[in-house]
Amino acid sequence: MTAPVGMMNWVKLLSLGLIWGASFMFISVALRDLGPLTIVAGRVGLGAIVLLVIVQLKGIGLPDWRNNSGQRVWAAALAMGFFSSAMPFALLSWGQKYVASGFAGVCMAVVPLFVLPLAHFLVPGERLTLQRGISFLVGFAGVVVLIGLDAFKLIGSDFEALARVACLGAALCYAFGAIITRLCPKTDMLSLSAAALLSATVMILPFALVLEGVPQMPSALSLAAILYLGLLPTALAQVLLVQVIRDAGPSFMSLVNYQLPVWSVLFGVVLLNEILPPQLYVSLALILGGLLLSKKRRRAIIAT
């Protein structure tokens, strides 16, 4: 049975697209004063603190690790922390040192296409039909156009080409995170989100301190960017995500993937004066075309 949507869920969905789409611009701003790992540690740490406070105030708490069910949930939270936060955030933050924020945003539209072949092998009932296979091939053609053939000729100091691959790697991480979230034992989603962000913080913080050291006080603009990244696309977005999935279902939630590249390109061009390569728009059309094909009669799995 299809869950009712309602006007408020449309508002929340549009809000999520705007919040996540703007995050690529704020990463570019934060990179002016801070290292990529420091940015990741700051946003997941702040997001974890906010969600931990929320679950305590609501009397939910973290999953109980003392029983088998809780241990399985914590195992999923650890994997989600790595694949949905720590690793993709690090890849995106490093990649955006060398590519435009709009490019990174377009890469996120690839996530549902990566999910298709993964779900075929890992999720019961998610078969890779002919229609889904065609949608994957169309979207993959967009990926090839997006990163360019020079990305496979990584020589010397061609960090831009490597950064393109890093952004696609982040999308692949999100796809794995989506599969893990789908297969996670049933539990309170807020509690699971808090555990995942806490796990991501524990993973990334030591690397940030060892490789980049204790950061100096950044500029007010970079500090504001970190606050935005931690409070909105990392913490608040998790809460909105849970509400939309509960009220309208995951298939409706997957519509957010169509918004992210549009917002990221818009913010990058208008506010950061980024000059985007012409092939980006061709690749965007192919990727969104693949998404439209996969959307028809498809029970979507989404990344957070």
From TrEMBL:
Coiled-coil region: none
Keywords: Membrane, Transmembrane, Transmembrane helix
Domain EamA: 14-147, 166-293
Primary residence: membrane
GO cellular component: a single term: membrane
Organism superkingdom: Bacteria
Signal sequence interval, chain numbering: none
UniProt cross-references to Pfam families, sorted A to Z: EamA
Residue spans crossing the bilayer: 42-61, 73-92, 98-122, 134-155, 161-180, 192-211, 223-245, 252-272, 278-294
Entry membrane topology: Multi-pass membrane protein
Location of this chain's protein in the cell: Membrane
Protein name per its UniProtKB record: EamA family transporter
InterPro entries given in the database record: AA-Vitamin_Transporters, EamA_dom, EmrE-like
